[in-house]
Structure formats: C-alpha cells, structure tokens
Amino acid sequence: MDDSGFSTMLTRLSEKSRDDYYNPYTKFSWPDSVSEEQWWMNPDYLTVSGTGLIEDEKTLKALARLETVNFFSLHVHGIRELMIEVAKRIHTPDFAEYNEYLHHFIGEENAHMWFFAEFCYRYTGGIYPEPASPLRREGFGDLWDDVVVFSRILIFEEIFDYYNSRMGKDPLIPDILREIHSAHHHDESRHVAFGKQLVKRLYDRAAAADPSRRDEIEKYVKDYMTYSVRSLYNPQLFRDCGVEKPLEVRRKALSHPVREAFHVKLMARVDRYFVATEIFRTSWGTDHVNA
Length: 291
Ligand SMILES: [Fe+2]
Ligand SMILES: [Fe+2]
Hints:
mainly alpha; Ribonucleotide Reductase, subunit A; globular; binds fe (ii) ion; RNR-like; Ferritin-like_SF
C-alpha cells in the first residue's frame, strides 16, 4: 500500500491541531445564566420536529433545553468510553504511526468532554446518565475490534458534526451554545478526516487477515448507527418536560416518516462513506427505510 498520502495527511492534521490549540478552560466566557426565553436548540432540530406530537411552545422550549443537555451528555458518555479504547491502543506497535495524532485526539476529546459537561452543570441539573447499550463492544478478534472502535468513533463524530456545524452558526440560540457547537465543529472536522482514512486502513488490514467476519461487521456497524439515532430520543426528556405518555410520544416520534427521512439525512455522509469504501454492501439508509 502506498502510504505517503496517509502520512502527509497525519502530519498536516497534527500541525493543524498544534496551530489551533486552545485552552478549553479559558476559551469561553460563561455568562451567569442562559435565558430560558431563548431556544437552546433550533426547533427544527428537535426530535419531535415535523411530527406535530408536541405543539405548545413552552413545552417545546423546555424540550430544546433538555435535548441540548441530552446531546451534550451523549458526548460525555460516548467519548469517555471511546477514549478508553484509544488510550488502550496509543503507543502499541499496531498504532505506532498514529501516536502523535492520537495524542491530539485524546487531548481534544478531553477538552470537549469538559466543556459539554461544564455547560450542563453550570446551567442545568447536570448531565443525564449513560443510556444502556444493547450492543457488545468487542470479541470480534483484535483487528476487527480496531475496526469496530474507530467506526463507532466516526459515526459518533459525524452525528455530532451534523448538529454542531448547523447550530454553530445559528443566530437563534444563545451565544454560549453557539460558541460551544462551533468550537466542537472546528475540532471534529480534523477528527472526521483522520477517522475516514484510518477506518479504511484498519478495515483492509482486518479483511485481509480474516474476511469471514465482513458481514458480521457490516451488521454491527449498522446496528450501531441505529442505536445512535435512538439514543437521541431519550424518553426521560419527555417525562422531564411534563409530556404525557412520554414513552408513547418517543415511540411515535422515532417511527414517524418525517423523522425516518431525517435519520437517513443525518447519516447520509457516513453511510455514503461506508458504501464507497465497500465496508457496506448496501447502505444503512436503504435497509433503514425498508425495515
Ligand atoms: Fe468531540
Ligand atoms: Fe472527535
């Protein structure tokens, strides 16, 4: 394999991380409070958007606050667990060439975890607990476990980036939230560029050693995509903003055709990547819509 392109990219991304380095603890000027009159999340991005399930503006504004907290909480829990996996691999022989960049990755994710949690603790009752995951995380064999870990990171980052890139420039939401989304988007654009190249390399290495698990991995990665979408719809949020029959509202929202179309859009970029790299034989979107 000609690696010169990949090494150049690694060097370039590491340089960019150095140049863009910031102190997360002093970067933001945290206001004393964040107005509850404002939308904390653009209503277009709420999980009930387009469904007509909740129409009262006060409840929707409360939901926008809680969905922001849920979204930030998902980053805290998701990235803690994935950082553990990255930390297990850094400075081991198989990952030696990525050491420099992985240091930036861990450092930046540590900063993200801090500012997302900080927002929740400063202005709300704190973060939501980690959602239970039905998916196993390892046991596919070492090389395939590497693929699984970095595919999960990539999916996770692409979902965040969908929202961050939009809310990072949304004049509707409070300044501090716009700044947090924008800072995260800025760092994640490097992580996604790295992740796409890395997953492909790890996949090719694993598939060459043991092609028999390809279908199983495709299914796993797709299940992770589905699980990630579902985690955005936390029934506790509906309960916490006083919606009646929260579980039913959650179920109806999740399966609403407008929302299903949105899920496909949310995942489109990463789904296209998996198809283009032949990690997927069929797209998640096609499976999802036909399910
Ligand atoms: Fe992050
Ligand atoms: Fe990231």
